[in-house]
């Protein structure tokens, strides 16, 4: 428990607990008990409950974005190329607080496919949160250069992912790409490998 959380009481504490669960817990047992839910829908339910606890409007979308700007760390892993693959994304608000961690098992795929899927997972989640500005951190030079228009997308399997990424990116008011070395992308790398290990 952080010192800050010890100071919370009443509705603020209840709301903070719900948002902490959404950010930090894998929620595997809950998803297993309710097969009609995927992680994104469950997180929306938790966010709605947090808003209602605070006395919000109770609608599916908040009146104002909870996070107008986020840093999105994305990664993909393939054990073999192609091989068992997973995608991961971590959204972080400017203060450094983790907003969400997402992982998805992809079955047998290439590393580049997994890299794109990690980005898509993060962009979809950022859009659900009504984020306006996103700064993308990734260690895949190929993906970043393709999205920046410097490289062509010749792979038939990557083309639909690339096109979806462009559509999602156009939903944001501002987008910035930052290439980072793998050691600076450990949180997203951890989620992509966890997706493989736990079949998320």
| Class from helix and strand fractions | alpha/beta
What spatial order of strands do you see in the largest sheet?
3-2-1-4-5
- Report helical residue fraction: 40-55%
| Count of strand segments | 5
CATH class of the largest domain: Alpha Beta
Round the Cα radius of gyration to an integer and report it. Answer: 17 Å
In the CATH hierarchy, what is the superfamily of the largest domain?
A: Ribonuclease H-like superfamily/Ribonuclease H
- The proportion of strand residues reads 15-25%
Description of the structure:
A 5-stranded mixed beta sheet has the order 3-2-1-4-5. Helices cover 44% and strands 23% of the residues. The N terminus is likely disordered. The chain folds into 2 domains: 51 residues, no CATH class; 130 residues, Nucleotidyltransferase, domain 5 (2-Layer Sandwich), CATH 3.30.420.10. It is an alpha/beta fold and 200 residues long.
Label this structure with key terms.
200 residues; alpha/beta; 5-stranded mixed beta sheet; 44% helix; globular; disordered N terminus
Topology record:
Layout lengths: L2 H4 L3 H15 L3 H6 L5 H15 L15 E12 L2 E10 L5 E12 L1 H18 L4 E6 L2 H7 L11 H11 L4 E6 L6 H13 L2
Parallel strand pairs: 1-4, 4-5
Antiparallel strand pairs: 1-2, 2-3
Helix pairs in contact: 2-4, 5-7
């Amino acid at each position: 428990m952080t010192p800050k959380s010890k100071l919370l009481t009443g509705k603020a504490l209840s709301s903070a607990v719900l948002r902490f669960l959404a950010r930090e817990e894998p929620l595997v047992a809950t998803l297993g008990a309710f097969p009609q839910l995927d992680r994104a829908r469950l997180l929306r339910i938790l966010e709605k409950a947090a808003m209602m606890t605070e006395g919000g409007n109770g609608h599916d979308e908040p009146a104002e974005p909870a996070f107008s700007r986020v840093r999105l760390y994305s990664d993909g892993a393939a054990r073999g190329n192609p091989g068992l693959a997973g995608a991961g994304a971590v959204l972080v608000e400017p203060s450094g607080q983790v907003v969400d961690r997402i992982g998805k098992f992809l079955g047998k795929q290439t590393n580049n496919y997994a890299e794109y899927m990690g980005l898509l997972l993060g962009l979809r989640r950022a859009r659900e949160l009504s984020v306006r500005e996103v700064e993308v951190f990734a260690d895949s030079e190929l993906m970043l250069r393709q999205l920046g228009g410097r490289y062509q997308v010749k792979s038939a399997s990557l083309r639909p992912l690339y096109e979806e990424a462009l559509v999602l990116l156009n939903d944001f008011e501002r987008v910035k790409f930052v290439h980072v070395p793998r050691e600076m992308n450990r949180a997203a790398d951890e989620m992509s490998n966890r997706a493989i290990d736990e079949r998320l």
